[in-house]
Amino acid sequence: QRPDPPRLTRRRLILDMTWGTSPSWCDAFADTSMHARSVATPRSWLPQFTLVVLLVLSGCDADGGDDATAAGPTGTPSVSLEGPTWARSSEPAPGAPLEGIVVTARFEDGTMSGESGCNTYTTSYEVDGTSLTIGSEIAGTRRACPPAETAVERAYLQRLPQVSAYRISGGTLTLLNGDEALLRYDATIAAEAIPGDWIVTSYFSGDAITSVLGGVDMTTTFAALDVAGNTGCNTFSGPYQVEGDEITIGRLASTMAACPTEELQRQETDFLAALRLATTFRVTGNRLDLLRPGDTIAATFVRA
Question: Are 168 and 185 in contact (CB under 8 A)?
Fold first, then answer.
């Protein structure tokens, strides 16, 4: 009797891997010294081997690293806690009607600051992964505020020390106490927020921040590449450039009509000079601040 024919087999490669000292497994995979030996295995093993290799390699980026920034559904990297100006949203309920009242937060190098509804505030914070602790010693200005702003401010500042964690989803920041959402903010991306029509509220006059004279409408419009406006006496225009939160306003040209009073003439001169002093800016809710070096005011605006 003749013996049964041998079963069909396929030779496979077993990879003996000697790992290098690369900082990540993707680098190690790329740096591996591979030694092959041949063993018998069923024919069905080959496509499984191919699938495993593809899955392994798909975990590494083109440079062999595994530190790529997480991206959202559109491929845009997630916003980080530090950097943006966060404008508070009306949900969850802020403890008092928020309509028209600006509340903001900025996180930078252990210091949290912003506008609390009427005054500005500053405190400390610590981050450990997604854990967030906000200091209970909160300093702030002491301006007298209308009742609505006072109610919002009090409720907001009371919630900050209760925060124990944070979550960022897209452009939304949620501050949590356990699983409870205490505060929610939307990221303000400065370059996207500055275009539009603005009404001037104050400006640097050389030695002080001066409010616009009563009865005078001073306006400024930021378009894609140009800034233009009305000083109350003349119109002006010129180029500007934004990179991140930095701004450069170029030489401004204006019409030459004489202002009716010396006060208006001085206001126009000081305002146009203040625009050229701006080096950074921030947009918080419906407010725009152009800032001089040292984070001091060049001019302030509200959205028209």
Answer: no
Cα separation, 174 vs 188, in Å, equals 14
Please name which of 277, 303, 273 lies closest in space to residue 288, comparing C-alpha atoms: 303
Would you state the structure tokens that stand for residue 280, as one six-digit string? 């950074």
Tell if the pTM clears 0.70, that is, is over it: no
CB 177 within 8 A of CB 162: yes
What does each C-alpha distance from 114 to 25, 26, 246 come to in angstroms? 42, 42, 19
Instruction: Label residue 92 left, alpha or beta by phi (over 0 means left) and psi (-120 to 50 means alpha).
Output: beta
For the stretch 160-170, pLDDT in tens is 999 999 999 98
d(CA 150, CA 154): 6
Rg (CA), the chain: 30
